[in-house]
């Protein structure tokens, strides 16, 4: 059967863009090296018509499809399953920017455009596309960003990917093309269909193009590195700064001392951010479209906060860049250190400190000497909470007990009204876990939507639900 499909694929995209064997292998393992699988072929279409033809051929012959962009998923969502008869459809060749409208503040691009290319194009037009994933911006692609509802450091001010999309173009599981590339802020004509595909991780269709929101480009920026007594102080500080600085706050990130240990050990040109080490630091960024200095305003606001700040520094140049360099490289440092039990969780902002206290205490009571690497987007309640042991032998034992670790963390998150996946998605990693924490009605509705749009379950099976 596949030989017949292979000939169709060759005719559609050309011999050079149907990969198999060793040439396909790099597309079948994820960025972290945690998930790998097998594909009959990796197909690299050059436009939406080719995507549609590939999908139609696979649907006709009952072959499952794995949509893939830059393959930077952290949950195994963009790689085929082991021992599978699946076709990977990689959109990296589809990297054209169709239009940039500076009056309407929109950019229309194909799904294979890298996030870095989108941001650069906006900057060259004196506009901003605010999705902040600096560590992987050169590699991740906008279709994948949309499919996983990516977040990043700018969510506090600009929202998730879901808030940055006006329109989509999608190839449906039967090969039809839905053209929803509307550039409208208001369109009250029924169901907002694009929202079904944002965050669906390729289980409902393949996003081939999108209309993205742009914003005015800031002309002044200031950053602060602030040592705080504990996460509760950080939460209070954010509330205080929002009262005093308003929407100028564009990022508010928390970093534990254990994060700095890993970055300073593994990453070159990384330096201590303050005069001495503290258990917790917060990185803050203010930005404004007005060409005025924000350093004094930020410094004044921090001075007026009161108790709980142990030390702080404000800068808008090289020192500020060095602070954000630390934040950018935490994930890379963890990767170099070795495996850990990772969690991408969200709780209401008012419960962030409570989550950290409860989770730290619960894990330390069960796993003596456990190392907790906690950091993330405290401004929107999203904490990356990673658990390991400081030596390889004990760490391998902990990894074997990852389900026990997950249950401790997720039960606390759930009890605080949170989510077990804030911005990374479900993929393979949390496909089973989510059934423990989502309401049965909600899971039923998700399955109904999946069956309605993809009744043969050919679009990225084994992921999400």
What does this structure look like?
It holds the Pfam family FAD-oxidase_C. Keywords: FAD, Flavoprotein. There is one protein chain. This protein has a seven-stranded antiparallel sheet with strand order 15-12-14-13-17-18-16, with helices on both faces. A five-stranded antiparallel sheet has the order 5-6-10-8-9. The protein has four domains: 2-90, Uridine Diphospho-n-acetylenolpyruvylglucosamine Reductase, domain 2; 97-216, Uridine Diphospho-n-acetylenolpyruvylglucosamine Reductase, domain 3 (2-Layer Sandwich); 220-331, Alpha-Beta Plaits, CATH 3.30.70; 338-437, Alpha-Beta Plaits (2-Layer Sandwich), CATH 3.30.70. It has helices at 2-13, 48-60, 115-124, 142-147, 155-158, 194-197, 231-245, 257-266, 295-303, 318-328, 330-337, 352-366, 392-400, 402-415, 434-437, 440-453; strands at residues 18-19, 39-43, 64-68, 86-90, 97-101, 106-110, 127-128, 165-171, 177-180, 206-213, 215-216, 220-228, 249-256, 280-288, 309-315, 344-346, 371-377, 382-388. A hairpin with a 4-residue loop joins strand 17 (371-377) and strand 18 (382-388). Helix 7 (231-245) packs across helix 9 (295-303) and helix 12 (352-366) packs antiparallel against helix 14 (402-415). With 465 residues, the chain is of the alpha+beta class. It has 16 helices and 18 strands.
Q: What's the short version?
A:
This protein has helices spanning 2-13, 48-60, 115-124, 142-147, 155-158, 194-197, 231-245, 257-266, 295-303, 318-328, 330-337, 352-366, 392-400, 402-415, 434-437, 440-453, and strands at 18-19, 39-43, 64-68, 86-90, 97-101, 106-110, 127-128, 165-171, 177-180, 206-213, 215-216, 220-228, 249-256, 280-288, 309-315, 344-346, 371-377, 382-388. It is of the alpha+beta class and 465 residues long.
